[in-house]
Write a structure and sequence with these properties.
single chain; 242 residues; OB fold (Dihydrolipoamide Acetyltransferase, E2P)
Amino acid sequence: MTTALHWKIHWPTTLLMLVLLPLLFGLGHWQLQRADEKRIAQAAFDAGQNAAPLEISQLSAQAEQYARVRMTGHYDNAHNFLLDNRISHGRFGYEIITAFIPATSSTAVLIDRGWVEGDPARVQRPDIAPIDGEIELIGSVYRDTARFHFVDNLHEARWPKLIENLQMDDLQKQFSAPIFPFIVRLDPAMPGAYRTEWQVFSNGFGPERHIAYAVTWFALAFVLAIIWLVSNSNIVQLFKRD
């Protein structure tokens, strides 16, 4: 009767483990890192929402993500952008981006005024009512890290212009005067605001999603290790003995 653990190398499963085990552990740790990054981003967002706003003249081009800002000036109603493919509550639409001219700065600010429903057939673009006169706005600095660029409509002569993302270098080319290298997401109830339900992440894509992915990768690594153990030893026979 076999009473001791014996090993006999089964090369196919051994090679498979040597290749896949580090990969699975690497993917799991990467997902944990992504979860940490998103927790930090959420904490920065929460801290920014609770902070007193700074005047736009106090901000530099290196302003921190989600920093609160206050400005007085007027909308440049002639320069609006439609940020395409924005889904809200299951409905297609756009985010309205409008240039704003601060009274105390020669540098313009692009204001994300929030979401408006669009024509699913894309035949008509939404009407953007002008906001005239000097007003005060409060919002939060936002730097878009997306780099997807499916359609380039910035060559269009007509306004508002359709854009796929907020690539500030491209948007700067649409203005003769300088603009800040970030946008400001408008607070609710501000003049010209549409639906402003700002979130750090899309629903279901917070840190918890990455934790779930990490658990999946580590579980696969555990299963692979069990398969290797069974294939390369007599452990099954040991458990079967009376």
